[in-house]
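Intended use. Records like the one below are meant for learning the mapping from a protein sequence to its folded structure. Do not use them to infer anything beyond what is encoded.
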Amino acid sequence: MINFEFDPEETVEWAGVGVLTLRMAVRRIMALSLENRRLVVLYRTPGKAPAFFGLGHIEQLAALPEFSH
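Structure written out for the chain above:
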C-alpha cells in the first residue's frame, strides 16, 4: 500500500548511476536481478517523505499503472 506522495517525473538520485526520473529508475531497477535490486536505494529531493525509496517502495511503484507504460 502506497501511503506517500510521488510524481513519476520527479528526479531521484541512484547512487553510482546518477540522477533519473523516478519512472526511468523504477523501470531500470525492475529489470535487474532480485539480488541486485536489493542493493538499490533511490534518494529524493530533501524535504520529501520518505527521504528515499528502498526495494519495498520501488516494487509498490512498479505495480502502478503510471509505471507500466
